[in-house]
């Protein structure tokens, strides 16, 4: 052996062993697409290209409410390079669409009901030509007075053939004559939050030789989008295919259907591939937003602070069209009292149409708005009674076995008191030093704060709850196929990866069940069986459950011959780290040897137990499962300027079971940051229905500098026995809870009521008289 060889051998022997690759459930398995996303090679819809590509542009209404007198497309059609101009007259099939209720026209024909409503679309050989041609479409309007106050919608002339009232839920629970010794009231307003999705909303439509069309979209619910598109195009469903491209993050319905449909119509009309990339302004005007909400509350309690009765009126502003407003209202009414024991509850809930921008599904819809209100009421009640706010909440905390105001018994784990106690006992952060070197710690940041002596620190609490999966009889079902060949497993499931980590979870499930390291998740398209939308943690539960069942069926196929050979049951065999062993050690082989070149596959469905619609009194088992969260917020407020800095958010949450620790922490931190935006900065402002500053300059998202220290104090792993793996969805409930906790802390710092979100500076200013 040469000296060089000896040196190399010694170095190899001295080198530390490589870190083991994370494996199976409970491990922090990295996302398969993480490298591509960080390097900029991930294929988003905006990056797509096709031979003979045309570019699309959409003409949108500049008015919030107007009657269309005429539409003249002559000038646009005559422009060089323009290949097609379409309006409502060119829709061959169903002219209406909508996620929940199909009441929204593809193109406005006689009346414009909101600012930015599509009027016409153009396809041209250059994106600038398409935009100029869209602007050349002449529309004569008769401008009408918009209805922008949801309270006026009850008396206003109908804005839609279906009327202004979308849904009314009267909830009646307990004794209407019950009364408490202490009564507190409040009026609360929640602003309009935009989901502000990362990356441009874009898509590509490619016509097929059979007269159909393929749509390449960042869709979060491809089968619903396909069905809607097929109905609009006047085609059979099998002649429309949606291929899901990379989704650049989604906290709501990622793609506006009103964006997708003109794209497909233009491709069918021109016979050419057509691409449309929305500007940020078009995104703000087109897709749905969180429901602005007006809430009136009255809480009754006894002298010890125990709740006797809650009365509330909840009014959701749905904007111009219904979308999923009925579902949001059910969540708002169902959780109007929060995670507290309330023996008597009387809630009135309405969702109405206005001429404001459309509202729809955004993470924690309905539950977030009421959480801000009922937690403000708990603060008022604690102040009136002279009781510590956390102690008051503990006295009323919900637990497993208690009954919601809807009459539904809470059968899932509900460790509300344990969560609150955990954040209450967590050490408070140190106070900032009153020195120039630490001015950046003050509200307003460097050079932006007032006098240090004007800063007040506040501590507040929030308890929140959300439902998982669909509600009120929604058929929640997902299908998955697992195939194994040559030591490689492939998962086919139409569950879209929106950043929630489903593809990583699917790999972990198969690794855990079959002991196979190399697992691939196939791209999603509508040739696969449906899996439903990617909201409310559905895919962790329903799609993850389908993958688990399919993997277990493959496991049985794998183990059955061995079990038969050795005369034992498959339950007596286990798979660990790629090895199959029996309980008594007689059998020991590898998965690869047991496969022996065979190809195994299985398809399975997961369908949770059914729910039921709320009845005429708001009663019924409407929700499959629930998740809970407690947050303690610490804020610094400059009481002269009204500026607020969130110092720390301490969080405790029941998660059922931690399936991927790193992924879970990332989801919670992202959700809490979104909640900071709701509390302090995010509000899509309108003037008589016209969106003001529809861009990321006028709409203020929180940045890394606005994100506080997020302390995950406790994760309660009490498994939900009806959920696959016992896990609960984790990202919605921190969004619901953190704005309420921040508002509570600002109230503690200032003594002001803080009854509006986002919190405006004037709401946090304390005058000498106060």
TrEMBL record:
InterPro entries: Ald_Oxase/Xan_DH_a/b, Ald_Oxase/Xan_DH_a/b_sf, Ald_Oxase/xanthine_DH-like, AldOxase/xan_DH_MoCoBD1, AldOxase/xan_DH_MoCoBD2, AldOxase/xan_DH_Mopterin-bd_sf. Residues 39-145 form the Aldehyde oxidase/xanthine dehydrogenase a/b hammerhead domain. Residues 1-28 are annotated as: Disordered. It comes from the Bacteria. Residues 1-16 have a biased composition (Low complexity). This is Molybdopterin cofactor-binding domain-containing protein. It comes from Streptomyces hintoniae.
């Amino acid at each position: 052996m040469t000296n060089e060889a000896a040196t190399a051998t010694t170095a190899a022997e001295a080198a530390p062993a490589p870190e083991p690759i994370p494996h199976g459930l409970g491990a922090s398995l990295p996302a398969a697409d993480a490298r591509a996303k960080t390097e900029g090679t991930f294929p988003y819809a905006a990056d797509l290209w096709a031979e003979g590509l045309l570019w699309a542009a959409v003409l949108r209404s500049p008015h919030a409410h107007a009657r269309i007198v005429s539409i003249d497309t002559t000038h646009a059609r005559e422009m060089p390079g323009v290949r097609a101009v379409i309006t409502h007259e060119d829709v061959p099939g169903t002219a209406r669409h909508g996620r929940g209720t199909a009441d929204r026209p593809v193109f406005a024909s006689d009346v414009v009901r909101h600012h930015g409503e599509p009027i016409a679309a153009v396809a041209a050989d250059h994106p600038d030509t398409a935009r100029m041609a869209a602007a050349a479409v002449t529309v004569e309007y008769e401008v009408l007075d918009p209805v922008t106050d949801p309270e006026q919608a009850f008396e206003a002339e109908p804005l839609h053939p279906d009327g202004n009232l979308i849904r009314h839920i009267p909830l009646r629970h307990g004794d209407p004559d019950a009364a408490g010794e202490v009564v507190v009231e409040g009026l609360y307003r929640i602003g309009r939050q935009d989901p502000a999705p990362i990356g441009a909303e874009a898509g590509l439509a490619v016509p097929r030789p059979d007269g159909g069309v393929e749509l390449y979209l960042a869709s979060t619910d491809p089968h619903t989008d396909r069905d809607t598109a097929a109905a609009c195009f006047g085609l059979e469903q099998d002649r429309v295919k949606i291929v899901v491209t990379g989704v650049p993050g989604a906290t709501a319905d990622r793609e506006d259907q009103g964006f997708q449909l003109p794209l497909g119509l233009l491709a069918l009309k021109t016979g050419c591939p057509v691409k449309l990339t929305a500007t940020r302004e078009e995104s703000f005007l087109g897709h749905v937003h969180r429901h602005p909400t007006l809430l009136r509350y009255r809480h009754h309690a006894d002298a010890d602070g125990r709740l006797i009765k809650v009365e509330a009126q909840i009014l959701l502003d749905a904007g111009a069209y219904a979308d999923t407003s009925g579902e949001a209202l059910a969540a708002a009414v169902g959780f109007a009292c929060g995670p507290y024991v309330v023996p008597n509850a009387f809630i009135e809930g309405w969702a109405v149409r206005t001429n404001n921008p459309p509202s729809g599904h955004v993470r924690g819809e309905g539950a977030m708005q009421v959480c801000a209100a009922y937690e403000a009421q708990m603060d008022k009640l604690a102040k009136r009674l002279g009781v510590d706010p956390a102690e008051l909440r503990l006295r009323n905390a919900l637990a497993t076995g208690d009954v919601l105001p809807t009459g539904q018994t809470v059968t899932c784990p509900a460790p509300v008191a344990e969560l609150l106690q955990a954040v209450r006992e967590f050490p408070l952060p140190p106070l900032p030093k009153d020195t120039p070197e630490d001015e950046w710690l003050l509200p307003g940041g460097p050079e932006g704060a007032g006098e240090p002596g004007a800063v007040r620190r506040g501590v507040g609490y929030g308890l929140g709850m959300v439902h998982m999966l669909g509600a009120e009889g929604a058929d929640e079902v997902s299908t998955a196929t697992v195939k194994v060949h040559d030591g490689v497993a492939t998962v086919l499931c139409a569950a879209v990866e929106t950043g929630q980590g489903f593809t990583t979870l699917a790999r972990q499930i198969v690794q855990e069940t079959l002991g196979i390291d190399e697992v691939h998740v196939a791209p999603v398209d509508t040739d696969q069986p449906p899996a439903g939308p990617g909201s409310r943690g559905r895919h962790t539960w329903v799609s993850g459950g389908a993958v688990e069942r399919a993997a277990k069926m493959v496991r049985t196929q794998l183990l059955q011959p061995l079990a038969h050979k050795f005369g034992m049951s498959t339950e007596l065999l286990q798979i660990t780290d790629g090895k199959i062993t029996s309980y008594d050690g007689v059998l020991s082989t590898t998965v690869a040897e047991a496969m022996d070149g065979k190809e195994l596959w299985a398809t399975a469905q997961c369908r949770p137990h059914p729910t039921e619609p709320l009845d005429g009194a708001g009663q019924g088992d409407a929700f499959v499962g629930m998740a809970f969260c407690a947050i303690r917020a610490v804020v610094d407020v400059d009481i002269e300027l009204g500026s607020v800095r969130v110092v720390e958010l301490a969080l405790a949450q029941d998660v059922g079971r931690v399936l991927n620790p790193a992924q879970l922490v990332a989801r919670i931190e992202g959700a809490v940051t979104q909640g900071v935006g709701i509390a302090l900065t995010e509000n899509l402002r309108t003037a008589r229905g016209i969106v003001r500053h529809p861009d990321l300059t006028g709409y203020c998202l929180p940045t890394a500098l606005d994100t506080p220290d997020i302390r995950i104090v406790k994760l309660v792993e009490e498994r939900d026995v009806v959920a696959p793996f016992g896990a609960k969805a984790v990202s919605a409930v921190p969004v619901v809870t953190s704005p309420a906790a921040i508002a509570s802390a600002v109230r503690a710092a200032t003594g002001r009521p803080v009854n509006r979100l986002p919190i405006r500076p004037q709401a946090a200013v304390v005058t000498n008289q106060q």
